[in-house]
Amino acid sequence: MSEKLYERHGRKVIVVSGGANNIGKGIALSFLKDGWQVGIMDRDKKSLDDFPERENVNIFLYTGDVSDEYAVAEFYVLLKERFGRLDAIVNNAAIGQFKNFLDLSVGEWKRAIDVNLTGCFLMTRFGIPLMLENPGKGAIVNISSTRALMSEPGNEAYSSSKAGILGLTHALANSLGPNVRVNAICPGWILHENEEVTKQDHKQHLTGRAGTIDDITSLVAFLVDDEKSGFITGQYFVVDGGMTRKMLYI
User: Using an 8 Å Cβ cutoff, are 102 and 151 in contact?
Assistant: First the structure.
């Protein structure tokens, strides 16, 4: 093994599903900036082709669907060839599925569950062997949603998939401990890239503002750091500016 390759194989590696845009992209770029090697799996080929750091030797981009077990398996084979190890997984890939319940088809229901929940399972199931192989310890952060805890009409598929992630989180924490810690984040209203909202939208939050991508990336960084959060596993953290604690009267 060349000196350069050896050096790369000694650096920490994080995988981010759905890392081509918005929260996932912010997480990937943040860890890349902090000196990690980053693997991204996303079905959005155009966004991967336009990814700002795509030429960086410390990033691996793979176009694929997280609900496809063969694509996920291939992703990890190639990741191992590229970086040789795995330290953390961020299960972020998701699709929205908001539709009047009586108009929601079985196919649309299954698609939301397949991507949002089964995709989380697959990315973990195929990644854990590599994580346990080298270095043998690691962390998983699952991106759920406040919709797992509260809802509104037309959220059945999305909310069910995100609530399932919370159950999967504490189950995995039991199965994979003590070597691997597993936690979840439930974001509320997080502004996407270049998204602008009204002052009134900001004022809805107890903090006086909507969330930013940085609000999520900083918590992810904390949860994968064994020195800072090594006693935390099986938990979920709500990041929503206090909205789930706000009484609303009509």
Answer: no
| Domain presence at residue 229 | yes
Domain encompassing residue 11: 3-245
| 126 domain-assigned | yes
Q: Give domain status of residue 35, yes or no.
A: yes
Q: 79, 131 in Cβ contact below 8 A?
A: no
- How many percent of the chain have pLDDT more than 70? 96
Q: Could you give the residue numbers annotated as active site?
A: 158
In a domain, 250, yes or no: no
105: phi then psi, degrees, rounded to nearest 5: -85, 160
> Computed from CA positions of residues 233, 172, 142, 165, in that sequence, does the dihedral angle turn out positive or negative?
negative
Q: pLDDT of 63-105, one tens digit each? A: 999 999 999 999 999 999 999 999 999 999 999 989 999 999 9
For residues 2 and 24, the answer to whether their CB atoms sit within 8 Å is no
What predicted TM-score, i.e. pTM, was given to this entire model? 0.94
